[in-house]
Design goal:
By secondary structure, the chain is α/β, with parallel strands linked by helices. The chain has helices at about 15-20, 45-55, 65-70, 75-80, 85-100, 130-145, 155-180, 200-210, 220-230, 255-265, 325-335, 350-365, 375-390, 405-420; strands spanning about 1-5, 30, 60-65, 105-110, 185-190, 215, 235-240, 270, 280-285, 315-320, 340-345, 425-430, 440. The chain folds into two domains: about 1-225, no CATH class; about 230-440, no CATH class. The strands form three sheets. A six-stranded parallel sheet has the order 2-1-3-4-5-6, with helices on both faces. A five-stranded parallel sheet has the order 8-7-9-10-11. A two-stranded antiparallel sheet has the order 12-13. The radius of gyration is 21 Å and the shape is globular.
């Protein structure tokens, strides 16, 4: 199968992860633009270079495309860009002409502009550092229908609303493409959702117009990759806290159970009727009362049960905490890890991020035409080093990006022994912040 993949940006979970997943099955031929062309925290993607690259790549079966990358230069530039609607529409027309010529199945996604409830402007326009929470409140109460008097300066509010309207109009252009049959699957992502807000309002309008919306963002291209890999797999989800599967994760607007089912549906999986009839068991380490988050100091009740691995293929979505693993659970999992039936672990960022990337790995590994066991082990070692060793442990021991090699050594040794894989990883901070690391040289 030949797959062309255009990521959201150059982060490891957006760029490296798709390559690591596809490497599990050597029969998957992946075309992906050079990493240096993609955007980051401060840099906009080289959109014209990517368009030319897309036009020139050989015949392909599937094109999975993050539309924000082509049109705005990336997910973060989509919130910061000052280009006019007319300028962006010209770029959409160029992209449309290329896609029509390709005659491939197109799986595409575009973001609904998020509204963060904070005053951090790291990923937003400059004025967010002063007015972010106020803009969130204005959006929330306006949508709710509650009269709101705001202190936000008129020029800032006008700019924010103008940017929202521009992005919303571009999303409606993609709906036209879907109606014309150019796009096979089109997803609008809902990132950092609350109960009310302009983003929620826009999602409902897009749904009314025939669009499909999903909670999440970074994982959606990976879930579309899962959808592109045509394999019949029946999954039966098993929640470690079944009586709490109706609770809503941090940064999401649906229950963890609905998030699991939604990701499975988009990824092209079938829900098994029972444990016995399943091809694979999806173990979901969910939370009690409220999802925790270690870096924010939000605790939750720990996993206390004994872990007994299923006697059939299984994978683990660790969502008890956002932005990192559950130490109690992972230690028990690793003590009982059965590599013969093990199909993957994930525990990064939001619940949707964890689920979407995990499911893509399952699709690549399950009955792979040309299986690469070493590539699978490499993927899993990276996930445990990142989601467990760094995010749930080492990150809390440092104050700023620094050399973490000594901190990571005990985890490296344990994973090397379990996976029978000699490792000497290197760690960098791709966006020069503590939030994410890149694990390389595995």
């Amino acid at each position: 199968m030949k797959i062309c993949f255009i990521p959201i940006d150059n982060r490891p979970v957006c760029y490296n992860l798709v390559k690591d997943i596809c490497a599990i099955d050597k029969s998957i031929e992946l075309a992906i633009p050079p990493r240096e062309w993609l955007g980051d925290l401060t840099k906009t993607a080289k959109t014209e270079d990517i368009l030319k690259w897309l036009e020139q790549i050989p015949e392909t079966d599937i094109i999975i495309i993050s539309l924000d990358t082509i049109i705005y230069g990336g997910l973060i530039p989509s919130r910061r860009s000052n280009e006019t609607l007319e300028e962006l529409k010209r770029r959409t027309q160029n992209l449309k002409e290329i896609l029509v010529k390709k005659k491939a199945k197109i799986f595409a996604f575009s973001s609904i502009m998020r509204i963060s409830n904070n005053n951090y402007n790291e990923e937003e326009k400059v004025y967010w550092k002063d007015w972010g929470k106020k803009i969130f409140e204005y959006s929330y109460f306006t949508h709710k229908g509650t009269p709101v008097k705001t202190e936000i300066p008129k020029e800032i509010l006008d700019d924010y609303l103008k940017t929202r309207k521009r992005n919303f109009e571009i999303n409606k252009v993609y709906l036209e493409w879907q109606r014309e049959g150019i796009i096979d699957t089109l997803i609008f992502s809902k990132d950092d959702c609350a109960e009310y807000g302009f983003n929620v309002q826009e999602a409902r309008i897009l749904e009314t117009l025939g669009g499909t919306t999903k909670t999440g963002a970074d994982e959606i291209p990976l879930t579309l990759l899962s959808r592109a890999i045509k394999k019949d797999i029946k999954i039966y989800p098993v929640f470690t806290e079944p009586e709490y599967k109706n609770l809503v994760s941090n940064y999401e607007d649906i229950s963890i159970e609905k998030s699991v089912l939604s990701q499975m549906e988009l990824g092209g999986f079938e829900l098994a009727e029972s444990y016995e009839k399943a091809d694979l068991i999806l173990i979901v380490n969910n939370f009690i009362e409220k999802q925790g988050e270690l870096v924010m100091g939000w605790e939750t009740k720990p996993y206390t049960n004994k872990f007994i691995p299923p006697q059939k293929p299984y994978a683990v979505a660790d969502v008890r905490y956002a932005n990192g693993a559950d130490n109690n659970f992972v230690n028990k999992l690793l003590n009982q890890l059965d590599l013969k039936n093990f199909y993957g672990y994930s525990g990064w960022n939001t619940s949707a991020n964890t689920l979407g990337s995990l499911l893509a790995g399952i699709k690549a590994k399950y009955n792979a035409e040309d299986s690469n066991d070493r590539a699978f082990k490499r993927l899993e070692i990276i996930r445990f080093l990142d989601d467990w060793a760094y995010q749930a442990n080492v990150r809390g021991q440092i104050n700023f990006p620094c050399n973490i090699k000594e901190f990571m050594k005990p985890y490296e040794s344990r994973l090397s022994e379990i996976f029978e894989y000699e490792i000497n990883p290197e760690y960098i901070y791709p966006w020069d912040r503590k939030f994410e690391i890149e694990v390389s040289n595995i």
